[in-house]
Specification:
With 390 residues, the protein is mainly α. 59% of the residues lie in helices and 3% in strands. It contains twelve helices and three strands. The protein has helices spanning 34-38, 40-57, 63-79, 102-115, 123-144, 150-173, 186-210, 215-239, 249-275, 280-298, 313-341, 367-370, and strands at residues 24-26, 93-97, 119-120. Helix 2 (40-57) runs antiparallel to helix 3 (63-79), helix 7 (186-210) runs antiparallel to helix 8 (215-239) and helix 8 (215-239) packs antiparallel against helix 9. The longest helix is centred in the last third of the chain and has 29 residues, at 313-341. It is elongated, with a radius of gyration of 24 Å.
């Protein structure tokens, strides 16, 4: 039997993919900026933003490089005392939405360059948009991590919590009208934050399972992951009517919700088997429930489809592996119950709901920690002036 997260001599299967969302690309300043360049504070701000623009324009820039430029830029804004001053009117900041395809990106860039419909002069708005861009790069870095080892899982989990913190801070300061930049509405920011935290908790489950934590604890974590993905799928589905949300995201979240519900049932059954007599009937019922959950998902979000609104093949493969493991476990438990325990098997609707976690294991990172440099310098929470590496 091979669980998705079980370590064995054979190469472990790839973990299920993570979702990331399109970010923002910074555009160069237009018009006369000579007055702003004569101001010391604005000159530093412009210099930091130029690195963000270069990273946006470089197709080969990694998520880590772009995130580093955005962090340095955000530290300048954070340390500035101009958030409500008049000098900010000297500059007009402009961004464009990062499209998934070249045609969309070119069209968005042309529209922004021609009409500057996505421009603004508010540093508070600039703070919010740059935070969103940073969150998108952190989510992309997490999605690209190799999570077959514990170090990769931890890096992905940290990046996802940082992304959630950046999104929460962006929502607190966002002043940009919702029709100017895609995904900058309160509903979108909240949904993306929930998605980042659900994926971070998924990483936490991977660590707990690979680390040999007790099945009872892993079952609670898996159940909480499932509940979180249910909330995410509802939020994403409601956004599809108003925002340019990828149609595959909601089925992706629904499929993971079903997967982790079945995983929680499997682990709960294993925990019950460790207790011995008296709970063998419930163990059988939990495994049968896991089978029904996966079968129902196979007719819904896990159904193989050629349309774009379907869960990725990697998630379907993971669900298929889990189904084989559940079937094997169910056969063994039913045999034990028939031959040894002879306990009554309760109906699925008579089972109590599996408990989740009493407290959240993952939280959005405080924005002061998100903006720290990679080596831990510039502790903004202590009031120290940030440093910028050029």
């Amino acid at each position: 039997m091979h669980s998705l997260f079980r370590r064995a001599k054979a190469p472990a299967p790839m973990p299920m993919p993570m979702l990331s969302f399109p970010g923002k690309k910074a555009l160069r300043f237009t018009g006369d900026t000579s007055a702003a360049e004569r101001d010391v504070d604005l000159a530093v701000l412009m210099h930091a933003r130029s690195h963000v623009v270069l990273a946006s324009e470089c197709a080969k820039a990694s998520a880590a490089e772009t995130a580093a430029a955005l962090r340095a830029y955000l530290r300048i804004i954070y340390a500035s005392q101009m958030m409500g001053g008049s000098m900010q009117q000297m500059l007009r900041f402009a961004w464009r939405d990062a499209g998934s395809g070249k045609k969309k990106a070119k069209a968005s860039a042309s529209a922004a360059a021609a009409g500057q419909g996505q421009g603004h002069t508010s540093l508070s708005t600039e703070w919010a948009v740059a935070l969103f861009a940073l969150a998108a790069e952190l989510a992309r870095a997490a999605a690209e991590e190799d999570r077959r080892g514990s170090d990769g899982i931890r890096r992905a989990c940290t990046a996802l919590c940082d992304a959630a913190g950046a999104l929460r801070a962006a929502a607190a300061r966002s002043a940009l009208p919702s029709d100017r930049l895609c995904h900058m509405t309160d509903a979108c920011l909240a949904a993306f934050e929930r998605l980042m935290l659900a994926q971070a908790l998924e990483c936490y489950f991977e660590l707990a399972f690979a680390g040999g934590k007790p099945p009872a604890l892993c079952s609670k974590i898996a159940r909480q992951v499932s509940l979180d993905y249910v909330e995410v799928s509802v939020a994403l589905a409601s956004l599809q009517q108003q925002q340019a949300i990828d149609r595959s995201w909601a089925p992706h979240a629904q499929a993971k919700a079903a997967y982790f519900h079945a995983e929680a049932c499997l682990l709960r059954a294993r925990a019950l088997r460790e207790q011995g007599p008296g709970v063998a009937g419930e163990a059988v019922a939990r495994l049968r429930l896991a089978v029904s959950v996966l079968e129902a998902a196979g007719k819904g979000p896990l159904k193989k489809s050629s349309s774009s609104s379907a869960a990725p093949a990697a998630v379907r493969d993971a669900a298929a592996r889990l189904r084989r493991e559940v079937d094997a476990e169910l056969a063994a438990v039913e045999a034990d119950n028939c031959q040894v325990y002879c306990e009554r098997v309760p109906a699925a609707d008579a089972l109590a709901d599996l408990p989740g976690l009493p407290e959240p294991l993952v939280r959005p990172t405080a924005v002061e920690r998100v903006l720290r440099e990679a080596d831990g310098e510039a502790a903004l929470a202590s009031g120290g002036a940030p440093t910028i590496r050029h």
